Batch of 4 targets.
Target 1
Amino acid sequence: MKLKKLVGLISLLCMSPAWAIEPFTVKDIRVEGIQRTEAGTVFSYLPVKVGDTMDDQQAATAIRSLYATGFFKDVRLEVEQGVLIVLVRERPSIASIELNGIKDFPKEQLKDNMKSAGLAEARIFDKGALDKATQELKRQYVARGKYGVSVTTTVTELERNRVAVVFNVVEGEVSKIKQINLIGNQAYPEDELLGLMKLSTPDWMSWFSKNDQYSKQKLSADMEAMRSFYMDNGYLEFNIGSTQVSITPDKKDIYITINFIEGAKYSVSKVAVVGNTIVLRDEVEKLIQVKEGDVFSRSALTETSKKVSDRLGQEGYAFANVNAVPTIDKEKHEVAFNFMVDPGQRVYIRRINIAGNDKTRDEVIRREFRQVEGAWFDVEKIKKSKQRVDKLDFFEEVNVETLPVQGTADQMDVNISVAEKSTGNISAGAGFSQGEGLSLSGSVSQNNLFGSGNHAAVQINTSKVNQVYSFSYTNPYFTDEGVSRGFDVYKRNTDSTSTAVSQYGSHTLGGGVRFGVPIGEDEAISYGLSAENTQLILTANSPARLTQYVNDFGASNSNLLGTVGWSRDSRDSAIYTTEGLVQRAFLEVALPVFDMRYYKFNFQQQWYYPVAQDVVLLLNGEAGFGRGYGGKDLPFFKNFYGGGTGSVRGFESSSLGPRDVNNAVLGGTGRAVGNAELMVPFPGMDKNKSVRLSGFVDAGAVYGPGDLPGSAGLRYSAGAAVIWISPMGPLKFSYAVPLNKQPEDRLQKFQFNLGSMF
């Protein structure tokens, strides 16, 4: 019997001609040594079939192919009387993975991470995958500031060619930044520069912000913040020479040293515009934020390039290139700039693609777009389109990308991707006072009914004071031009005997129709007509003025209401507003058809102003007044009220304004409210825009006839609030302290509101 052994891959590749085998025809193939692997699997990877001619090159290729599967740790080939024998030794499989000493992470999460590295139960054991999983585990601890973590692994062989893998982890303590040293700063004190950094030594908020834990990414961001600070204040040649980060031998304390090279302070000597500006050069020059004699500012250069590019983008030049080319005079410490303008080729939009809207119909999003397919690219129309989709308030996130069409130079696609949120909204308000305890109100609405963009709301309030049953429906695109139509049906029962408001009861039943007509991109007017009937119920404790009204005009009042409104909304976003203006005016008139004759007018203006990055100032002002006409008074149940969320926080809801001799609130014929609120990211949650902290000052008053005694006059309060854009709507918790409390005032320092910002 003739037997030839074909040695392993390396030997086979390096053997001399004396070791070469004579080519032969494979009559059969036999696999030996397999335990878990199926013979068919080996055959599928083996590049040799029965009937093939076997030679040195074929043998080498076969061994390489079987090794490459990762299933085997040894492969040999033998031949016996034309039969190719494949002898293999399988790698062991992983019977179990055990994690000991881990507290900071869920073990299942770590096992999932190891699986992506190639290490998992029932898989073939690979020493390289084990090393990779170990390093990844250490990396996760280092990312949490635990530089002293120790990870050791044990691999135990088991029967049936299996192994057990054990990770023993000693987590150690979090390493803290002990000291940050700045070297080379002469223009600015160290405290001011350290204030620009996110990283810091431990302070009272470190437990929450984790800013005392070093990370390479945070340090890089801090160095860029300091570089921007210097470059925006004239230091054109500023540079960070070196950065050293050292850790003590016990892995507990970290020391950071940053070396500055400030250079000289530069001013701008000359500014010019060069190239094909497309639009009038004078118009481009007005967009330049850098003027002769100004201190050099990198952000002003960037802003100029952006403004000029955007202006050319309005003309369809999507790829306009605007570069500021400097000419530096180091002796005079001056720099001149030539803004090189290259408009590129004019581009039009081929297609608008929408993604992510599983519930909302495409047409609901597409009808808000001002950029249309087939038209020239317009950067302002694309921005406006994004804002309008944002203001639908159907989505947590709205992203718009413009991508060039491959193979063309004058076409682009607009891709809009949205992340839908729950558009069902539970609106609630609550407050607590010693006298009245907890007060609640609520409603349920669906702002995107069946994905159509239509709005439906049902309010059912069965509190002790107010019982409200109402239904409203609005179609925002009743016509293709954007005219909206809505219907309202409502029933309200009021019993104010247990509140600060004058004691009376009422039953109101009504309904109506309304329309909204857009008159501009951000502007619309509305008008409506409704009818209602109110039945008044007085008690023995009702104020004399209420009794006099019923005696004069009766306990049953029918009313035909005509309404006219105007609104303008230029906010950049309805989700996370940073700038813009909201204005609303509303007139309600009782038409001379039924019993009542009165009118009420309200005006509100909100102004959002970005004070700094992620810091927004909100100013809100409201004014309203009402009067009777035709010899009749403004009905007392149509009076204005103030206090609580939506007006002056810190005072009980509807408790401000004129009172009767028994200190019951009567409401008034006029109201004024002012609010100033500064909103900042919640400490430690800078990247989470949905949670913000604010400080506010409120002022407001309700006014009535001059002969009424009580609390007429302005009231002030100040406090803090936490704002959370929750899945159910904006949620605001506030704590306010009245600044000029009067003896008759009722306080309610802690309040919260769900469903509206004011």
Target 2
Amino acid sequence: MLPLEAIELDAFRQRHEHDTYWCGLLLGGCGLQLTTKLYTDRVCHFAHYPGPDGHPHLCGRSARSVASADHLYVKSAAAAWLHARGTQAGFEFTQPDGVPIGSVVDIQLPHKRLRVHLDQEVAPVWDAEHEPVLGVSVPVDQDTLIQRWYVHRIRLDSEGTARRVRIGTEAFARPTEWFALDDCEITERGLSTPAVERIVRSRSTRPASPWGAGRTVKAPPAHARAQTLLRQLAEARRVGSVVVVTRVCRDMAALTEAEGELQAQLSAAIADADRWLEEQAQTRQELFHDLAQAIALQEVGQVRPLLVRANAIASHDRTEAETAIADDAAECLNAHARQRQAEVAAMRAAQAEERARDEADRVKKLLDTLESRGIGQPRRAMREMVKDLICAAAGAGAYVDAQQRKQVELWRRRADGAGALAQIARQKKASPPARAARLKRTSLLHEQVGRRSWFKEPCPRCHAAKGRHCFNDDDSGGRDRRPLPHEERLQLIISTRNARPEQTTQRPPSQPQSTSPVWRVKDVTCPECDAAPGSNCTTPDGRPHQRRETHFRRRFHSP
């Protein structure tokens, strides 16, 4: 996360001066490179580089808040937490029905699957193969809390430039308790917190009986039973649980032992609850009516919150009409998501096409530059330009025609050849021991050739003319005259001298003797194994290395 203050951004830039930043595809971005913007009068932020025309780049990423990367923080924190417990898990940023990426994170454990809902885009499914973990903005109805005993929640708190994951446990008529991820465990039931352990223990353990063994426990009196039902009714109305209110009213009506004032109190409570249930039914009817109107008008901004509310407070005992409206709402949201995906895909395709055209123009400019001054410029500069040309051609794709591709391939071969020459030149600048070994070999050779014969033949290495001294050709920065001829020149003289008698005896007397030297691959030093002229390479069969043959052809057959 980029720091928002200028002084913090300075330290951030120094700490990451060798790093690059990119618009993340897993954040819904375009994948292009970003830069940091430092401001003293407003918050610092990442920004795209401008387009080739100088105009701001258009990116399809819509969510830019701190929470837009929470799915990545959840994956990172969960992976580290599970790894510390010796558990491996798979992660997937699921997009059911085309919802934006990051709304749902699926965590596949060895024997359990968790689905983290970070927003309200996807309604939780309680009877599926995965266990829902709800974000703080995802509603849950009280009936679900009663039936499931508890639900898990997740929130992310900002700490400096990071986000810290916390897991909560929400139960019926209890506040949500929050815990650090390290306080949680994975059990046979799934994700578990200290609060879950207390809830399960209280539900599973019977209270200690105050009665001695063998005594019959009497049923509570009608007055105590009635007071318990009245408290349950008040609590159920407070949290808005229609199912619990209906059940408690039914239990009150079945309490026949109540008499007098107690019966009147129960009757009044039942009547008041009936009116409350009628109001809830009216509210439910208005909710589905508003939802149907929003669907008809294709107001997606209204359909989504209304459907979430309907799933939260009206998920039980739906009529066929209510079920049809909810299904239409889900289809409306799916259609909108598909349309949005198509628009984003079209926008990205247009951006990709524009980038390809720009790269094609860049290919043309680079080819023109190379054709005009590519051969005469330094080898390193030419290789860098050819590297840019190859990258631009790859980005241009089909916008590079066949003729341009041939030119790109030609320049690639030329750059490879220049690279090989540079590598040979670097190898010539050998370490002092290798240089001393070569000088020793040269001194041994020049002792076999008289000083007057040193320059009788042109040098096949530095191309010094006949009668001229050899000069340095090892890219050391100059062409200084050498005190001794190159060993290739001396070896050529020795080979020519040794071959003359043989050629004289085999040639008919009518033909004049040729003074042209016999050129062999072994007459040059091997740049691969440093074999001396006249010696075999260190290959298993003694054949010359490929680089020695290339070096030989370049020295003796170059135009």
Target 3
Amino acid sequence: MSSEIDNIRNFAIIAHIDHGKSTIADRIIHSCGGLTEREMKAQVLDSMDIERERGITIKAQTVKLNYKAKDGKEYVLNIIDTPGHVDFSYEVSRSLYACEGSILIVDSTQGVEAQTLANVYQALDINHEIVPVLNKVDLPASDLDKTKKQIEDVIGIDTENAIACSGKTGEGIDNILEQIITSLPAPKGESSSDLKCLLVDSWYDTYLGVVILVRVIDGKLSKNMKIKMMSTNQEYIVEKVGVFTPKPIDINELSTGEIGFITTGIKVLSETKVGDTICDAIKPLKEALPGFKPSKPVVFCGLFPVDSSEYQKLKDGLAKLQLNDASFSFEPESSSALGLGFRCGFLGLLHLEIVTERLEREFDVNLLTTTPGVVYKVHLNNESILDLQNPSSLPDPTLIKMIEEPWIKATIITPDQYLGSIIKMCQDKRGIQTNLTYSGNRAVVNYELPLNEVVFDFNDRLKSMTSGYASFDYEIIEHREGDLVKLGILVNSEPVDALAMMIHKDFAQKTGKEVCEKLKDLIPRHNFMIPLQAAIGGKIIARETIKGFKKDVLTKIHGGGATDRKRKLLEKQKKGKARSKQFGRVEIPQEAFIGVLKINKEK
């Protein structure tokens, strides 16, 4: 093994949201001379506008830096800056696979939070060495001893060598770099072996086609080499090899232990499966690397253009977004109330929000989103199982044996004064408490909850009831049988597919009543009476009525005795109303759909 590989350190930066990952990455890049003073900007690795505006990282980014240590040796540092949000945890998992160690950043004013735990456990699962860093020591609220004790109590990592630093002032950055050299292991691998590479990530570039981020495990990857993707058995010629410093720089080859990018003229992202193994086409490997589980969408909702003429624009926008985000899926669907649109799958609500915001901003489409829902497993009497994404396509109840819904394991970390209200909210949402521990005055509570109850507003309510101090993280565990029903909404005896929802039987009546009341306020009056009904199967469980306009047809008749003529006119009006009720279409305005979505959020 060459001495060069001993001088490489590959590490990920992991932390909860807003604990300073991207800022510390900026400082490390600056102190290693990756960019000049003029080229530096805040969050240099967050390339999307939306990342910079919201101050969050969505895509993991990599940088190769050269560092001269105090012992006089030159080292190569490969950093991966990872997202902190639960919706993008699959980005974190694949970034960790490409590294041997992690820097764990904990905000010394906030302490350990839910996402800190989730990310550290992922790193420990794959035997990472971890360097704890306590950030934001320049703030008056910083409490190092308390934070160290929390890390030891909650996570169980020794904090004797924890480094105090400030991403803002740059204090302690040199200590982090020295600790990386001494504490983190060099990559293992044989440079003389046949090529073995892990495909870490891929994205679409307008000029280069698909750019593939790789970690070389054994052998060398060089320009003009013929490579093979093991999952698809396709062969390609490497056109370009490079590294990010953070600017992309072309090189001739990537050697064992290095992280860099290649392009091969691939035009479609689906040909590059994340976690795939790349090998030499002339000397293929017998066994692929274990790779990682593909990310599966967990939240589904319909996206419809407000103006139906923008359908093609929306379709093009979705296709372009999918080029850079393989974790999001869409298929066409049509709704009698909303027209043509798409059923889209997301990894969570933040992912949904980011995608819809990018569609509106980058492709200038006005969108209407239907109620987000989860994937149910419907077991039919004939032993077959359906994956149900859209409540309106639920089969006849007589054919159904049972319906299973996804459950999650949630970890909530909160100051203990808010614990009572959090436990009450979790119980209202059918939660089962599995664990409760304390570290100082903060409680760590674990719940098992149905995902359906969490997708709407759980995080928003949690933040508002705890003044933003609680943090929440979840992972999907399994599908369990639930007493679920399809709540249908009928307007003028016609079912409105866009308002149908799957709901637990206990909450159906209350929700049906609320939806009908809300629609009564939002649908304008017509010339005829409109009944609004909420139904489960053929049974109506709630009803409201929008009264029709009544025109006074009797004003033209003078004199007292013309009762026959009055009766005839009233009969004629009645027939006209009956006919218009039979043939008249009730126009449901967009505000009505948005209003019903808001009910679910407010509940």
Target 4
Amino acid sequence: MIGKRSFLRGLLLTGAAASPLGAVARAGPPPKPGSRGEILWDSYGVPHVYGKDEAAVFYGFGWAQAQNHGDIVVHLYGEARGRAAEYWGEKFAHSDRWVIANGIPERAERWFKASSPQFRRNLDAFAQGINDYAAAHPGKIDPKVAVVLPVSGVDVMGHAHRLMNYIYIAPEERTTGAVEPPGSNAWAVAPSKSASGHSMLLANPHLPWPTSFFTYFEADLNGPGIKMYGATQVGLPVLRFCFNDRMGFTNTVNTLLGATTYLLTPSGDGYLFDGKTLPFDVRTTSFKVRQADGSLQTETLTLRSSVHGPVFQRPDGKLIALRVAGLDRPGGLEQYWDMGRSKSVAEFEQILRRLQVSKFNIVYADKEGHIQYMDNGILPKHPSGDVAYWDGLVPGDTSATLWTEVHGYDDLPKVIDPPTGWVQNTNDPPWVATYPQAIHAADYPAYVAPPGPESLRSQQSAHLLHDARKIGYDDFVARKLSTHTLMADRVLPDLIPAAEADPDPEVKAAAALLKAWDRETVGDSRAALLFETWAAKFSPANFTSQANYKVKWSAAAPIDTPAGIADPAKAVTLLKAAIAEMKTKYGAIDRPFGEVSRFHIDNVNLPGNGGFGNTGIFRTITWGPLKNGERTPIHGETWVSLVEFSTPIKARGLMSYGNASQPGSPHRADQLKHLSDKTLRTLWTTRAEVEQHLEARTPI
């Protein structure tokens, strides 16, 4: 999954070989089905779990994940054990080396033991739900994957640890500088900005569409003192995007740097540090690799570590060490669980103060009218330097760069109940969490977050809230579904007249097409593809280069720059190149956007809409390369929920690619029609609503 096989050549860390993680031990016969509670499945495959206690809710949630996503979940647990190559062969050996080198299996056991007794029971119950589903439905889990079973609460913790610390914070690719930018949207609107006088919350993460550790799962969890509706990534036992009748919170990936890559200077058999040669801590371990004939071959690893952390050799020969913050904080899952059960904004803040969730902006709203944004995470303290410095290869030959402390809750940027009445984030730095700005980069250390620029998606997000008067719920939904292209507003006033003045009839035709365009990126648009093709040339590097803009981004006008075209003649030359590319790739310059851009899963194939966020489209879809005459999403709109905290609450949403990935499930693509039509589902949050749309009932 993650990383390149060539990355690890000379490993790397103190640690022990991964060992099998035991199954959950039961005392006596299993409970009678139905004695814990039940799962009600609605007509979109969403599980509504009703448990008699906490552990029963976790058990039902585990069962539900196995039913809808079992192959992915169990596979991920095998990877987090560091035994993927043992199960599935050589192509997973690089994954095992990374997992083992960073001590994930051993730390997972320590973290599990450090959890509260109740939460350990919850994790084990979640795992047992997976095991019991597999036992009750032989053949439903791919036999190649089922070799991992049974799983345990330690496996659940191990997967969460790997995901949070070594995929989000310190992915293997990060040391090579090849990490795909994340994408998510979040809004919270206060009563002062709401037409109804009620707070509203948008949760809208964007992650890759192909099934993986990034796949989202929608669920409704109910028990004594428990009411949580939302979504999480498969394999996690808690909701990361959550709401109930009183409150809700959502996450976006932030710019916070929780890991440092140190460049080591080799010296003899060790490395230089403060003018001395220090020896590596060295030990050997091993893991097994399944061969094509089914036999197992043992591979021995030499693991090295420095004072910084585990040591790796990059493909370019550089020797580096990885230092990750938060490896002493095992309570991230339990913090998410408690956030969803908080009874007041004060309690929610006390839970946030734990700082166990290692990364992510957190946006919150509640029925009492409070909203807030927090640039959350475990951030190392540094004496100096900016984000670019600490995101690069940091000199590792001096103790001056070796951080040993992290910032507390009060140090982190946050906006609470601003007079503007709204907060937002789209993965950009925190400084325009609301506008006019409530916080400023100059008031924080330079390594907290970059000063800018704000992406065009972030600017569009701010305009959708800032430019409005009071926002009604239906308007809130409509603004979230916006496919308007902000970049077109910034450049077409200069491009169109320049193109109209060109003698080339094809350029004039393109100018007429762009002039008539409403700047919406929707299925029947005949100019959206042309603009996108030109924009990729005008602003290369994934639509981020500002070299061709007349006015560059400015902190003094953070949501209105860049703008204009510096050299209109050059822009027309780029338009000519875009015309040629359109004719070659799509057959015409006015090909309807939705003929080429498709929402296609299994036998469902529908016209697409939405586009690249860096062109200023809030409804973000990252389209893949053209294949067989169409392109499909590789990233973008996944889970969305829009909640108004009225009485009763209003809740609408969508899981773009459906709420299941198991082969044969009817819920693999049953929500694509909504996505294509730019509509949302009503989210059924009460038992009475669920009973009216019941597909199946599972006693647990």
